[in-house]
Description:
Blueprint: H1 9-49, H2 71-82, H3 85-89, H4 96-129, H5 138-160, H6 171-196, H7 207-232, H8 263-266, H9 268-295, H10 300-325, H11 330-369
Amino acid sequence: MDMEKGVVPGAALDQGRKSRDGRKLVIVWLTVVAVLVFAMIVLGGVTRLTNSGLSMTEWKPVTGWLPPLTQEAWTAEFERYKSFPEYQKINKGMSLDDFKGIYAFEYAHRVLGRVIGLAFFVPFVLLLLFRKIPRGLIPRLAFLFLLGAAQGGMGWFMVMSGLVDHPDVSHYRLTAHLGLASLIFAALLWTIFDLSDRTQAPAMVSARVRQTSYFLMGLIILQILVGGFVAGLNAGFIYTDWPMMGGQFFPPGGMELQPWFHNFLENPATIQFVHRMLGYAILIAGIWLYLISRGEDTDAPLRRGVTLLLVLILLQVAIGILTLLYVVPVHLGAKHQAGGMLVLAAAVYVLHMVRARGRQSESAGGVLAG
């Protein structure tokens, strides 16, 4: 019958094998890029914690690969830095060797950004030429590349805000920079999970599990953005007691700005309070998702994903508390940044499985209805 339809079984098998091999290549490529983006986000946190972000006062997207290579070049770079507010108001008297120390973090951050751009663009073009990318995926990948380019521009837009009068970047721009990086990371993971998803027997997921998964993801996204505010306003360096803040549940001075809602945008004490409360809410939602996924007919892969998510949330809460108590040392701050991205990755994994099972449930429902 296959011959009658003009289909050669061997050719069909060969085509299917090539399609699977191409899909695996794309998964490996995107996984490498996702790991690089994860490293970039963590390095960005270290750059912030070491006050290194304003050490490079120019943006040269094409020619900025090499650092100063001679003593004269370093002296010229340092002299340029001295003309900006961070040196004049905070680091006046800094030595050239100290300047090289902070320059190294920002330089590494920018170079890694360029590496990510090449790691995405070059394989993308090659895989397109060899027709290894599923056709329906091409627009999404092209959009991801545009997001990456926009992220580079957003980074410089953020740095510019600290080169004018105030020797610190705008916390709004920093949050936008972090939020866009997190979006790119999550979109890469979602695409990898789409490509890795294998056809399986229909698995159901209850409305409670589905709704809680969406709610938890919403809380995690909000927490990442509030975390950008905390970093941008250095809010982690005040009220370093726990579980209270300055001996009170709600911090002293937490509502001192007028109008009142400015406290949730500009007041470091209030923003740290919100960050803490969101952490508790995420922990409670994670525990609730774990419990209901156990109490209902949820399949084993989804239960394992939920368990992983809860474990990462517990670790992140513990690291966050330690980071506060030890007044944000760089190593703990970096771990907290990494932990936030791992929680996001696990939440994307769980939500992807929930959505896949939701589609299967709808399909099964449609068959039953028919």
